[in-house]
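Same chain as my last thread, 234 residues:
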Amino acid sequence: MLLVENLTVSYGDIHAVKGISFEVQAGEIFTLIGANGAGKTSTLRAISGLLRPGGTVRLDGRDLRGLAAERIVALGMAHVPEGRGIFGNLTVQENLTLGAWTRRDGKAAIAADLDRLLTALPRLRERLAQTAGTLSGGEQQMLAVARALMSRPTTLLLDEPSMGLAPKLVHEIYQVIREINQTGVTVLLVEQNANLALRLAHRAAVLETGTIRITGPSADLLADPRIREAYLGA
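reply #2:
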């Protein structure tokens, strides 16, 4: 379980996240929705150790405060950032190999995981020797997710996985996320496309100017007239 309590993030005098609290239960998909500037990306970066926030973040009871980001990865959390963050000058295979650099369970286990991922994502297998920067946007997003999975996480943070993708590719990416969750991986999803995120997630929170306004089952938020008017164009 991921537990976030009184999380704050500031950039000088700008308070991007203002003491938010929520929990993500093991095995569920939880989504944070909200407009640009709501604090969604800052929240993910604080949780994964890329920022030094106030408040408390616990992963399966372990306090993550003060831990370096690479240490948090080794504890079972992987973060797919907004914009994908792949190494464009390296090959697909090199990117995937780097995803496993914190693991200590041996080359055979890493090779077996790589083979499973490439079976699930055959387009990446076809492009193993290709430079990652030459992939299409959808393929780069799949690579970013697959690289994160190579660390064998129990919890996966995803920041705007649908950004800039054609509708068909968005459907494919979201099908991959659903399948990842069905293997037991907990997912914390940040997404500006509220309709898409709420239809995928089990539970959700609405973030507005650094504050959580509503939390509940995704089906309830989809039916809430306030959410429909503000985020779903209804």
